[in-house]
TrEMBL record:
PANTHER family: SRCR DOMAIN-CONTAINING PROTEIN, TRYPSIN-RELATED
Gene3D superfamilies per record: Trypsin-like serine proteases
Source species of the chain: Lentzea jiangxiensis
GO cellular component, one term: extracellular space
Signal sequence range: 1-23
Gene Ontology biological process terms in this record: proteolysis
Compartments where located: Secreted
Keywords: Disulfide bond, Hydrolase, Protease, Secreted, Signal
Protein's name according to its UniProt entry: Trypsin
Molecular-function GO term, any one: serine-type endopeptidase activity
Length: 244
């Protein structure tokens, strides 16, 4: 299994080295993810275009945001794993045979923004374990978010390279004060008072990870990386429980 992961790693490194140093980071204010650090990250694509992120929960299961797949026929989605640079043919792809959206989901700003996809072809990459308790949602805990989304809210161009950013969780009361629709049962917020670092459009569905465990899913925001407007994430432990 290790060998399977190493080959894409080498190719991705070559490509990253060939990228001009002034290339702008994606996610907003992030850095390029390193080969092997996030084997469970997947891209959701349609006709070759990445539109959301996700993470492997098991070889044949992907967790993403409900709004990424709601209303999209499973057959129109291809999941790409083991590919940091979407311009390459690295890794593995799979069709989606079914998806299940959380009951009662309507729109990201009302929460419940989580879906689980069943893959037609299991993927040979390490899955991401789910956080063990709701105690992880403490203000100040820093998570890492991964995605191929925009580098700025008005940026039409996306990076083909997987990016990541470290972002602290914002206490519930503080988030409720800035997002009137905030619901601490099903969401949490993460961001910096000064903005500048955030997830953004097309990062949706991607994982927010603390200590190697899935804690959140990129869900919604008001613009991206604006001061005092933290990004909103699905509170994963409300929906998924950790395997023992
Ligand atoms: N809804 C966006 C998507 O579909 C994610 C937005 C996240 N925004 C933020 N400011 N963190 O890709």
């Amino acid at each position: 299994m290790r060998g399977v992961r190493l080959l894409p790693a080498v190719l991705a490194l070559l490509v990253i080295t060939a990228t001009p140093v002034h290339a702008a980071p994606r996610i907003v204010g992030g850095v390029v993810a390193e080969a092997g650090e996030a084997p469970w990250v997947v891209a959701l694509t349609s006709s070759g275009d990445q539109f959301c992120g996700g993470a492997l929960l098991g070889p044949g299961q992907v967790v993403t945001a409900a709004h990424c797949v709601d209303g999209r026929p499973p057959a129109s989605i291809t999941v790409v794993g083991g590919r940091l640079d979407l311009r390459t043919g690295d890794g593995a792809t799979s069709a989606v045979s079914a998806h299940r959206v959380v009951d009662g989901y309507s729109t990201p700003s009302r929460g419940k923004d989580l879906a689980v996809l069943t893959l037609a072809e299991p993927m040979p990459y390490a899955p991401l374990p789910v956080a063990q308790s709701s105690g992880v949602y403490m203000g100040g805990s820093v998570g890492v978010v991964y995605g191929w989304g925009r580098q700025a809210e008005d940026d039409a161009v996306k990076s083909p390279l997987l990016h990541k950013a470290h972002i602290p969780i914002v206490p519930d009361a503080q988030c409720a004060a800035v997002h009137p629709r905030y619901d601490a049962v099903v969401m949490f917020c993460a961001g910096y008072p000064d903005g500048g670092i955030d997830s953004c459009v097309d990062d949706s569905g991607g994982p927010f990870v603390i200590d190697g465990r899935l804690v959140g899913i990129v869900s919604w925001g008001v613009g991206c990386a604006r001061p005092n407007l933290p990004g909103v994430y699905t509170r994963v432990t409300t929906y998924l429980s950790a395997a023992a």
